[in-house]
Amino acid sequence: MTRYGIKDNQVRAFNKMIRISHQKLNLVCDMVRGLPVDRAVDVLKFSKKRVSDEVLK
User: Fold this and answer.
1) Does residue 11 sit within a domain?
2) Predicted pLDDT of residue 31
3) What is the overall mean pLDDT for the chain?
4) Is the CB of residue 49 less than 8 Å from the CB of residue 28?
5) pLDDT score, position 45
6) Distance (Å, rounded) from C-alpha 16 to C-alpha 2?
7) Total domains, the chain
8) How far is CA 36 from the centre of its chain?
9) Residues 32-41: contacts with CB within 8 Å, 24+ apart?
10) Which residue, 1, 2, 30, 38, has fewest beta-carbon neighbours within 10 Å?
11) For residue 3, what pLDDT is reported?
């Protein structure tokens, strides 16, 4: 079954209260999109971007 256009083995997270521009957020999301979870967490932990903490949550 697909919901929100994603497959059963994918995850989609929502956060509507991040106060940052969508261009800056998309830069960080593009860094981790398609990576395995453990690699994506490492990339976010060591990123110098301020929004990476919010994406890691």
Assistant:
1) no
2) 92
3) 84
4) yes
5) 95
6) 22
7) 1
8) 12
9) none
10) 1
11) 63
Over the range 11-44, which residues count as b (16 or more CB within 10 Å of their CB) and which as e? eeeeeeeeeeeeeebeebeebbeeeeeeebeebb
**Distance in angstroms (rounded) separating the CA atoms of residues 22 and 3:** 23
Residue type, 51: V
Instruction: Tell me the per-residue pLDDT of 15-29, one tens digit each, with 9 for 90 and over.
Output: 778 888 889 989 999
In a domain, residue 6? The reply is no
Asked whether the beta carbons of 43 and 35 are under 8 A apart, the reply is yes
Is 4 within a domain?
A: no
* Residue in the structure block whose two tokens are 């059963």: 8
Range of the domain at 30: 22-56
Question: How is 7-57 classified by DSSP, letter by letter?
Answer: -TT------S---S-HHHHHHHHHHHTTS-HHHHHHHHHT---TTHHHHH-
What does the alpha-carbon distance between residue 17 and residue 31 come to, in Å, rounded to a whole number? 21
For position 46, what pLDDT does the model report? 95
